[in-house]
Specification:
alpha/beta
């Protein structure tokens, strides 16, 4: 099966424009992200729109001449670029052309040369690759300081609406969020159905492209299944800890289906301990395949000061992939699952899907994922706040995700706000109902989570 390819409007494009304007050739840009996230596509689209000409070098399929040129002319840039322009049939113009090093992790020498290429100053440079692969490939090399990093994530709900030619949807959502006004039953129900459709399809560009081109959710599932297979192959090929990392990846639905949703080694193999998996967890996080949410022991404005790296939740980077990983045997043979899911009437664990979607939205918004377990005075009951965000210079914002019909019962949030009242600003409940404010708490529908 060939995965479809489309050019979608992506928010990262604005960051590329900012880099081009502010760096003015003084730095290269490294776009990091998981496989199939759209890094190469956005880099080439940027090159086509913003430069007179560009040269895209794919190190996944470089050819013998290319390797020879880089190895033999790394100190003779005039000759190197003469040969590259001849090889690719591209005319590069000083300060008006872009060179893209695609899959840079596969050829570390090119990345090592970035320092000298930037100093030479004749062209701009963008590199793409998987973060952890890049780190592994650079052993023995000095990472160039003339390099800026930019992370790319799956499409958020706003980008999904753009792809579906429905820009008016996020515009309406923004307006009501800014004014703190409800949308009304009919509009809200319509948007919830659209967001459930987004969760089912996910934010991987090829999944979205399949949906737009075929309007067939079975075809979307096949696309997502292929992406999952590619991820498994990447894990096996690139990680020295591939066995452990693959086990964690396949067990993410099991972790999230538990009431506390914590990573527990015993769910993978009896008798294993946290230290058996710690390096693999970091690998999956750095590879941006999983989003790890760590517990904060003593929540304060500087959340990371009391981070507990042995207590965490492990979400999948894309909720659509989580659904396929969780229910693939049922989904591929049961069309009624799709209709039930978009109506919000599935009998399976919607809570884990809902919370994963919130984590995905927060991560795409630039937030580090943190949550908090705490005890109330005189009690042995563990309370939990699903997510914590810094809020201003001196406050934090606790967030509860409520996928059920009852969202105004939130004992843990109430206890947290009471215990840490001097540190709290703007508690939020993310739920399936319309926007409202009540007793100092902002209730927002999940289709607004990308605005946080």
């Amino acid at each position: 099966m060939t995965l479809p390819s489309r050019i979608f409007k992506r928010k990262i494009y604005g960051s590329l424009l900012k880099w081009k304007s502010e760096s003015n050739g003084s730095s290269a840009l490294l776009i990091q992200g998981a496989r199939r996230i759209g890094k190469s596509t956005i880099a080439e689209e940027f090159a086509k729109n913003e430069y007179e000409s560009y040269l895209l070098i794919d190190f996944n399929n470089p050819g013998p001449n290319l390797i020879h040129y880089f190895e033999n002319y790394q100190t003779d840039l005039d000759r190197l670029f003469f040969l590259l322009q001849t090889e690719y049939g591209v005319n590069l113009t000083r300060r008006k052309s872009l060179v893209i090093f695609d899959e840079i992790q596969l050829f570390p020498l090119a990345r090592k040369m970035i320092k000298y290429l930037v100093a030479d100053g004749r062209y701009d440079y963008i590199e793409t690759g998987s973060l952890i692969s890049i780190m592994n490939s650079m052993k023995g090399f000095t990472i160039p300081s003339e390099e800026e990093d930019l992370c790319m994530y799956p499409m958020d709900f706003e980008e999904f609406c753009w792809a579906c030619d429905m820009e008016f949807i996020p515009q309406e959502i923004r307006k009501h969020y800014a004014n703190r006004t409800p949308l009304g039953r009919d509009v809200h129900d319509t948007l919830m159905n659209k967001f459930r459709e987004y969760m089912l399809i996910g934010g991987m560009p090829q999944s979205v492209a399949t949906f737009i081109e075929t309007n067939d959710l079975n075809e979307v599932e096949r696309t997502k299944s292929l992406i999952i297979s590619l991820y498994r192959k990447d894990i096996t090929r690139e990680s020295a800890l591939s066995g452990r990392a693959a086990e964690i990846f396949d067990h993410v639905p099991s972790f999230l289906s538990d009431s506390r949703k914590l990573f527990r080694p015993g769910k993978i193999a009896k008798g294993t301990r946290m230290e058996d998996y710690s390096r693999s967890i970091l690998w999956l996080s750095d590879a941006m395949i999983c989003n790890v949410c760590y517990n904060v022991n003593d929540p304060d404005v500087s959340l990371d000061l009391t981070l507990d790296r042995n207590t965490f939740k492990c979400y999948l980077s894309d909720t659509g992939l989580l659904i396929t990983l969780s229910f693939s045997r049922d989904i591929l043979s049961k069309k009624e699952f799709f209709a039930s899911f978009t109506r919000g009437s599935i009998s399976m664990n919607e809570g884990m899907i809902f919370e994963n979607a919130v984590a995905q939205a927060l991560k795409a918004g630039g937030h580090e994922l943190r949550y908090c377990e705490f005890y109330n005075k005189g009690s042995t009951h563990i309370h939990e706040i699903d997510f914590l965000l810094p809020c201003g210079a001196e406050k934090m914002c606790p967030i509860e995700a409520k996928s059920g019909k009852i969202s105004d019962r939130h004992i843990s949030l109430d206890r947290f706000c009471e215990k840490y009242r001097d540190r709290i600003a703007g508690p939020i409940v993310i739920h399936t109902k319309d926007l409202r404010e009540e007793k100092g708490i902002l209730y927002i529908p999940i289709y607004m989570a990308w605005l946080l």
